[in-house]
User: What shape does this take?
Amino acid sequence: MQNNRPVIVAVGRTKFGEHYGKKPEKLIEEAWLAASNECNLERKELDTCYMSDYFLPVTNKLGLEEGFLSELTELHVPMEVTRSFSAALKTACHAIEAGVYSIALVGGIEKMTDRWGKIRDDLMLLEDPWSYYAGGTPEANHELLLRAYIKKHGIVGEDLERLYGALAQVAVKNHANGAKNPYAQFQRKISLDNVLGPRRAANRSLGLFDYAPVSDGATALILTNEAVAKKMGVTPMVYVYGCGSATDYLNYSAREELDHFVAAQLAMCGALKESGLLNVWDIPLWQVYDQSTMMEMVSLEDLGYCAAGSAWRSIAESYPNEKGCYKVEGKELYVNMNGGLKADGNPLGATGGAQIYELFRQLTGKADQRQVTIDGAAPKYGGALEFEGFGTKAYVNILGRD
Assistant: This one.
């Protein structure tokens, strides 16, 4: 099994944003070519393909996505489609570890802006159909999460204002990181006033700049085993050390805990156990699923870096910070260095791939202006948290270089 450890040898992606003029096959082809060119791999060398998307049959009237991918690659190898990129990656890792396949393409694609008139309905039905039929919007559960958090931890007065300010700081930090990412949907910095203004105008706790956008885009990676990676001369090698997954109730209001995501906590425990790492601080670099600023804040607690009810304090005390990191108990934690979903974009089926893309670049020291250094070197480990729905299903992936 040692020689079958999953290794990511190359990554590729498109710019995220509105690609109304591009067909989905052009986007996934662009991501695949970027990855294949990086490791000089031809498509005939692929043993299998795993692709993720949520809405492609709806937004682009595609039938069997596997057939779409087969036609695109002109291959007849086994192909499977999942919802999230992490689900595709986890399945591919199991196949590599089992020795069933040696080289796999893992890709994600979404064309959400092709269905502007209905995509918000689709998103709410996906996340929580009960809330949808009660008149909820895609933002409703995020507001409810914030209210549950405030009530659970008794945050009032000046502390409450600091919490709201901390959430605004998350958006400012992610846009600053997105400004350094050439693939990001939003590449301009924003100020605290930019975040607070729309909140005041709407008389809401969360406003326009607290939420991730609707996006189009594609991502891809090449996964193989350690033996093949060595033959390819790959260095440094980036291993998938752990993949954890867990689920929670579809109906958010029916869950036992409303102030955080149980599925994320369980997925983190599973990924740590599989990776063999005992301390969360071995992983100082994270890509978290910030569909809202509230979700990034709560993730710091669910992943084990901040005590329950305290993440907002760590965020508030970390700003401003020229490194773009959070300071937690004197330690540095780097989160969403590509801008996160908030600035990089959120084409659902491809979003997890962008998280892995950023981790790969960071671990190999090729993240350009965004590069994180720990004791003068690139980080050794990085993690990614991806959700399906509103915390209904969570995936935690832990990557590390040799």
